[in-house]
Amino acid sequence: MRVIAGTNNKHKMEEFEKILQPFNVELIPLSEIGDFEDIEETGKTFEENARIKALAFAKFAASALKNGIPPVIADDSGLEVDALGGRPGIYSARYAENNDARIRKVLQEMTGVNNRTARFVCAIAIAAPSGIIAQVRGEVEGKIGFAPKGSAGFGYDPIFYPDGYDLTFAELGSEIKNGISHRSRALRKAGESLGIYFATGKSP
Ligand code: IMP
Question: Which atom of ligand 1 is nearest to the CA of 182?
Fold first, then answer.
């Protein structure tokens, strides 16, 4: 199953590849289709933003390839912190100017806060140029730490302790992260949806 990966984020791309491999998905990087700038995420939910990205990339693929256009898989993801009313949420990538600053901002807002519960959310949309084929969601519950720990992964991984572990995602490394993460949960559902779509030509 040939599928275009609708992301320019190399960490996400690695996770997409590892997790979709058992589903016999051959991922085509967006960069192989052409130069496509990040699109504006104007949605109010993770789902809406995933649909916006997947459809925009599918239309771009259609204009570049003309025919034999593989479906596009795109995600929108982020960290929801309960004590912050769900922030940074859909604004996770834009919460401050760089990654260190984003982590510092969350930790600073959590100063003196006892309730550290949080979750990573990943919404995935699969699209053809004519419309959305499937939409799925994955979540992983956990807690926000008090200082960044570990160097694997990306984004907020150094301050997120998934439930059941005393280490952050950045300390646990990709193998354990990919077994339990929001993105892996959503991607496994997406792999199943793609199997149905390729077998039947219909949306699951
Ligand atoms: P987007 O989905 O590319 O719009 O951005 C999601 C943002 O949420 C990323 O830039 C990260 O800051 C954060 N994020 C999403 N998934 C993860 C993850 O697996 N680990 C750490 N941070 C994440």
Answer: 19
Which atom number of ligand 1 is nearest to the Cα of residue 90?
Answer: 4
Among 154, 172, 184, 185, which residue has the most ligand 1 atoms within 8 Å of its CB, making it the best to mutate? Answer: 154
Q: Which amino acid is at 201?
A: G
Q: What angle do CA 16, 14, 98 make, to 5 degrees?
A: 110
Q: What are the average pLDDT values for consecutive 10-residue runs of the chain, which has 204 residues?
A: 92 92 94 84 96 94 86 97 98 96 98 98 96 97 98 96 98 95 97 95 88
* Predicted TM-score of the model (pTM): 0.95
3-state SS, one letter per residue, for 177-190? HHHHCHHHHHHHHH
In the DSSP assignment, the letter for residue 132 is: E
Tens digit of each residue's pLDDT (9 = 90 or more) over 87-129: 999 999 999 999 999 999 999 999 999 999 999 999 999 999 9
3-state DSSP helix/strand/coil percent for the chain, to nearest 5?
Answer: 45, 25, 30
CATH of domain 2-200: 3.90.950.10
